[in-house]
Model the fold of this input.
Amino acid sequence: MDHSTSRMITRVKAVYLYIREKGTVSTREIADEFGTTDRTIQRDLTILTHNGLVKSPIRGKWKTTAKPVKISS
Done:
């Protein structure tokens, strides 16, 4: 796995854990927390949504789903 893919996977995990810890958060809050652009975070959220791990019941606000998750290091 190349370095950029590894970095992206690490960030996606961190984004998921951040949402799980904070409850409902906005895309902007996540981008600010991770020091990246809204677009980068949106790509990460697309991955998490595709895997059924997060949802956006209110446009631009994100929360985790009830899907069980095993986080590996």
Q: What stands out?
A: The radius of gyration is 12 Å. The helical segments are 3-22, 27-34, 38-50. The chain has a mean pLDDT of 93. The chain is about 55% helix and 15% strand.
